[in-house]
Design a protein that fits this description.
Blueprint: H1 4-7, H2 11-23, E1 28-30, E2 34-36, H3 41-74, E3 86-89, E4 92-95, H4 99-111, H5 116-125, H6 140-148, E5 153-159, E6 165-169
Antiparallel strand pairs: 1-2, 3-4, 5-6
């Protein structure tokens, strides 16, 4: 096994594993520590303590990540990728002057009955670059994500003649 912390996502499971290893006279080897003789009570004790510590690490990291995401949201900063139609400056989102035209064009094509694959093919044929990587081609899933993205869309409670609830770019 490469490292003990890869094993010990649950201290209880790690100790159960250690006892099974001991009971069956199996040698445990970690790439970073070498042979781990669990029959030695101090090694077994250390293994157990480290298993509990290793169990806490992902939980603590998760809590810190959530705090950071909340703090960024409260400060109006962007978490993750900025959607089409916006750009960031000092981690804050601002509307782009040109991309809303593209968003509206995508939406118009969708409302006219074009599917996401057809829209993606159109954008590729026109040589329109994607947001994140100027060398990446448009995919149907990317178009779908734009159509569903609540950040770049303003919900207007309008029902079309088809009975669809329509969203328009703000």
């Amino acid at each position: 096994m490469r490292k003990q912390d890869r094993l010990a996502r649950s201290g209880k499971v790690a100790l159960k594993f250690a006892n099974t290893i001991k009971d069956n006279n199996v040698y445990l080897f970690f790439g970073d520590k070498g042979h781990c003789d669990l029959n030695d009570y101090m090694v077994y004790f250390h293994f157990g303590i480290m298993a509990m510590v290793d169990e806490l690490k992902p939980k603590a990291q998760s809590e810190e990540t959530i705090k950071s995401l909340k703090r960024n949201a409260e400060e109006g900063k962007v978490n993750g990728n900025i959607p089409l139609g916006y750009f960031t400056k000092a981690s804050k989102p601002y509307k782009d002057d040109e991309e809303p035209i593209l968003v509206n064009e995508i939406f118009d094509k969708y409302l006219a009955g074009d599917g996401t694959r057809l829209i993606a093919n159109y954008l590729n044929d026109e040589g329109i670059p994607t947001k994140g990587n100027k060398n990446t081609i448009w995919e149907a899933e990317t178009v779908k994500n734009i159509l569903k993205n609540k950040i770049i869309l303003k919900q207007i409670n309008t029902t079309t003649s088809f009975g669809l609830n329509v969203s328009f770019f703000c």
